[in-house]
Amino acid sequence: MTDAQPSTQARSRLLPDGPLRVAILGATGAVGQELLDLLAERDFPVGTLIPLASPRSAGQTLHWQGQELTIQPVEAAAFEGVDLVLASAGGSVSKQWAPVAAAAGAVVIDNSSAFRLDPSVPLVVPEVNPEAAFGHQGIIANPNCTTILLTLALAPLQARRPIRRVVVSTYQSASGAGARAMEELRNLSRTVLAGGEPVSTVLPHSLAFNLFLHNSPLQPNGYCEEELKMLNETRKIMALPELRLSATCVRVPVLRAHSEAVNIEFAQPFPVDEARALLAAAPGVELLEDFEANRFPMPTDVTGRDPVAVGRIRQDLSDPNALELWLCGDQIRKGAALNAIQIAELLLGGPAGGAV
User: Fold this and answer.
1) Which of 214, 224, 258, 328 is catalytic?
2) Which domain holds residue 281?
3) 92 and 205 part of one domain
4) φ, ψ dihedrals at 206, nearest 5°
5) Lowest mean pLDDT among 5-9, 146-150, 153-157, 213-217
């Protein structure tokens, strides 16, 4: 995927002016609920909202902007006349229904991994590669949460000095595994505090007062699927196909904000003050560091908020060409729902477009 200027044909897939028919695929999940909140908060031009979910949720109601809406089952007829589909229902659901919705004329912004590495599908972080969104053919992929947070910090630095290698360790919240995992963390934490034995049924191990290496499937090279997502998606978003990146992903007992420790090697030395100034001015980034007070970003700083907080930027003592930094971001918000809505805003082509 290139960042070339969008063609006339590509621009024909901009979202239309005026109130839109918007479908939320996966409306009852944690990200679906956040999408609903953000559509209201950001005054997105919704004319008709269509919540879609699995058959077990169909027929239930939800309240949005003073309306009581009935959740509909996912079927081809549900996408007729729809302008925008915000999908967050898992890869298998997206593979089945995103092409159907796109063929019906909708623009689909998909939060699953189904299309992220498809060369015909843009993978977009609006602050990093907004031009890519306009090259879509009906489907745009929302990156993995850890990748979104990482690229927000890498992009302004790469624009100044070429990055040679990235080593990242993630500290990922329960929300990355969904609303049921969040509820399980709450319940099992109470169990442990009461002296009981926590037994997990959602995650492979109890996350209460515990952590474990990410539970996505291990690959033959010893890395898990989540770690390879960070490698391959970062390369695509930043148009750096040869970027060397190694990730270790860990699930930690935090409800909804991910953290990352990042080591970045450049082709030449990068003064810390210069990097700090670039990150402080970068869109979507908030600099949060107080070395005297030993105060740097924490999950509680970003929970329920838009910015990715970056801090503790320092020279790597082992390599004169490398910097270290720490970041935190809300997994449900910027790591998923907010990024998707920002992509839709790019396609509006109006005053809200590109309001990132």
Assistant:
1) 258
2) 147-331
3) no
4) -65, 135
5) 5-9
Would you say residue 1 lies in a domain?
Answer: no
Which amino acid appears at position 233 of this protein? E
Contact 304, 333 (CB under 8 A): yes
Give yes or no: 145 in active site. Answer: yes
Specify the pLDDT at position 57: 85
pLDDT band at 104 (very low <50, low <70, confident <90, very high): very high
Q: Is residue 2 part of a domain?
A: no
* Contacts (Cβ under 8 Å, ≥6 apart) of 142: 109, 110, 111, 124, 148, 336, 339, 340, 343
pLDDT single digits (tens) 21-39? 999 999 999 999 999 999 9
Residues 119 and 220 in one domain: no
The amino acid occupying position 235 is R
- Looking at residue 165, which CATH number applies to its domain? 3.30.360.10
Q: Domain check: are 197 and 254 in the same one?
A: yes
Q: How many residues does the chain have?
A: 356
Residue 356 lies in a domain: no
> Are residues 23 and 74 both part of a single domain?
yes
Strand partners, 264: 166, 323
Q: Tell me: do 219 and 154 sit in the same domain.
A: yes
Q: Give Dmax (Cα) for the chain.
A: 64
Query: How many domains, in total, are found in the chain?
Result: 2
At 65 the three-state DSSP class reads coil
Tens digits of per-residue pLDDT, 106-149? 999 999 999 999 999 999 999 999 999 999 999 999 999 999 99
Residue 249 bears catalytic tag: no
Percent over 70 (pLDDT), the chain: 94
Strand segments (E) across the chain: 20-25, 46-53, 61-64, 67-70, 72-73, 84-87, 107-110, 139-141, 163-172, 212-213, 244-251, 257-266, 285-287, 308-315, 322-330
Pick the catalytic residue: 136, 145, 224, 249? 145
